Amino acid sequence: MNHLFIDQASITRRKDNSVIDAWGKAEVLEPSTHRCRIESVGQLVIDQHGKEITSGTSITFLGSVPISYEDEVHWNDAFGHEMGKTPIRIEAIRDFQGKVRTTVVNLP
Prior knowledge:
Layout: E1 7-12, E2 32-46, E3 52-62, E4 72-76, E5 82-85, E6 89-94, E7 100-107
Antiparallel strand pairs: 1-2, 1-4, 2-3, 3-7, 4-5, 6-7
C-alpha cells in the first residue's frame, strides 16, 4: 500500500491560537513533510461547522498526521505550481482494531 503514497505535502502548524503575537497572528511551528496521495477532485464535503462546501483537492496521508483546521498544507500540483490552503475537513480512517490507517484532508 505504501507505493500509492508517492506525493509529499508539508503541514505548517499554528501553535496555540490563544497565544497571539503583537500583530494578531498565532505562532507558527516548523513545517513537517509527510508522504501522501494528492487528488484533484470536485466533491461536496461537510466542514467542521456542518456546512456543505465544495472540495477541490483531497490529500490522503498514511497513518495519523498531526493537523488542525488552523494549519496550512503546502504541496506542488501536477504542473509544478506550489499550492497552499487550509483544511475544510479532516477525517481519520480507522481499521477494525481502532488504529488510524489514513488521514484524509479535504481542501477548497
